[in-house]
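Title: Prediction job returns without error message
Component: structure pipeline
Severity: low
Priority: P3
Assignee: unassigned

Description:
Job completed but the reporter wants confirmation the result is attached to the right record. Sequence as submitted:
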Amino acid sequence: MSQVLHSWVMGIAGAAMVTAAALTITPEGRVKKVVSLVCGLLTVIALLKPVTGFDGAALMKSLEAYRQEAVGFSSDIQSANENLTRRIIAEKCQAYILDKGKSLGIADLEVSVTTAWSEEGYWYPDGAILKTSADNAAREELGRIIRAELGIPPEELIWSMRDEN
């Protein structure tokens, strides 16, 4: 595209130089008027050259290439946004579970939340890995809270014992 613009500007500049030279060396009178008319036509032709040599196919090809590039950028951004949303949901749920665990007296809780994509088009917590040395009663209560508040079923909660040192 810039090559076409460069050629057009060079054509106009060339026409202007030829016009200036021709008008300078032409004597006054009828001949100068004819030369002036011819030079004017030459300048108009130089100005309109890109319009007459317009290549619609090349323009459409360039526009399609730009559109494809924009689609690529858009999909990259959308993918990054979805990944970020998934991570935020997982981290918020982890923080929520840790907070509820502390309120139940579970001080050594480690949590990792997994997420899944719903058919409705959003991320939701679908499981958790919990590591603690808390007793069964505290685990059951925390599991009940997780089920009620986050919707994670008990079978998707993976509990493991934490080694007490």
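Comment from assignee: result matches the submitted record. The first helix runs from residue 2 to 25.
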